Amino acid sequence: MNFYKQSIAYVLIVLLAISFNTAQGQIILRETANQKLSTESFINGQNGFSLAQHHQLTMSMQDQGPKEWITIGNNSSPWGSYNYPVDFFWNTSLTQSIYTAEEMNHESCAIEQVVYTYKTMTGNYPDTVSTEYFRLWIANTDQSSLSEEAGFWIPLEAFTLVYEGVVEMYSGQDQEMVFDLESPFVYNESNICIMVEHSLSENTFENHFNYEASTLDDNDKRSRLYVSYDTPYDFTLPTNDPSQTGMDLPQLADVKLYVNSTSEASLAGTITNADAEPVADAFISILGTDLETYSNDQGEYDFSYVVPGTYTVRYSAFGYVVDEITLDILDNVTQDVVLAYLPEAVVEGIVLDNDNMPIADVNIQISGYDSYV
């Protein structure tokens, strides 16, 4: 008899499990349908995204081995008072966050991963959210404010797009929103600005995702937020366009950056003129990146970290012809450059009045590449 009762109890448990799994399956099916719709929009190029060739899913943190981290922030802002760097209360958002060179406290390196820590506040949504698309950009910058006086936003052309695709997010405490960059971003020891866009979505997650962040001083305007239910941020408009200046926030998103300091490639050299004299303050830029520097008094320049590849390097200095050289920078490369003088010219003439009489002591000015009087 006891065996019979135990058998009935076992059957009831199995039936309950099947029922629960079926309900879970319905949730997963609804989630998959939503994901299919968002994916179709993504592939068709809506909401500012390119084709899905850049589509990425989050990689497991435990699968990637030991890392060197730059960690910024102390989680001094209270949970639940903000949604930053992504505001899921709205259907789309854009944020910019400036982190100073002092906060970075690191030599030149390659940023390979950007991580934000969050927790979920409500149970109204699936345990796994994999329907939302993001773009993330990074810029080396001398700018230290996103105030009105600074133009509100740093313009798009200053940034490098480093991530485009979906990020899986999970319910719970101390969860990590992980952006595995499509190509490493080379940090050049300046301030950096990270810009995160949540693509226009059919979904909102009201009061659900909340991020760790740190409180800023009242005059420290280093975080800015734009939100909308139906209108993505328009990068073709001026940064001070009244329709999308957004708001500055009293907190800055805490962030962890996985960096690679092992320099696989570098570029250095000396710049001289035709008289074998060093050229100081020559401007050197690696085209297609935001890497740039100036030569010192000895004409020396140095890029200590370059992602291996083929680049065009531009050398320019006042009074000299601009030179461009294509280089395979696959390891540690030394490239010395001799800049040619700009050709000199003589401008002379006679100044006459309306009666064709010469006029003495006339002030003559030439403005352009240089100013002459």
Task: Please tell me about this protein's structure.
The chain has two helices and 23 strands. The chain has 373 residues and is mostly beta strands. A six-stranded antiparallel beta sheet has the order 6-5-9-2-12-13. Strands 1, 3, 8, 10 and 15 form a five-stranded antiparallel beta sheet that branches. It starts with a helix and ends in a 34-residue tail after the last strand. Residues 1-66 have low confidence and may be disordered.
Number of separate strands: 23
The amount of helix comes to 10-25%
User: What sort of overall outline do the alpha carbons produce when their principal axes are compared?
Assistant: globular
Largest sheet: 6 strands, antiparallel
- With strands numbered from the N-terminus, the spatial order across the biggest sheet is 6-5-9-2-12-13
Roughly what fraction of the amino acids lie in strands?
25-35%
Q: Given the helix and strand composition, which structural class is it?
A: mainly beta
The Rg value, from CA coordinates, equals 28 Å
Give the termini distance in whole angstroms: 114 Å
- The oligomeric state of the chains shown is single chain
Helices, by number, come to 2
**Whole-number tally of structural domains:** 3
Draw up the topology in text.
Layout: H1 2-43, E1 68-72, E2 92-99, H2 101-104, E3 109-120, E4 128-129, E5 133-141, E6 160-166, E7 169-170, E8 175-187, E9 191-198, E10 209-211, E11 213-215, E12 223-228, E13 247-248, E14 251-253, E15 255-260, E16 266-273, E17 283-286, E18 292-294, E19 300-303, E20 309-316, E21 323-329, E22 332-334, E23 337-339
Parallel strand pairs: 16-22, 16-23
Antiparallel strand pairs: 1-15, 2-9, 2-12, 3-8, 3-10, 3-15, 4-7, 5-6, 5-9, 11-14, 12-13, 16-19, 17-18, 17-20, 20-21
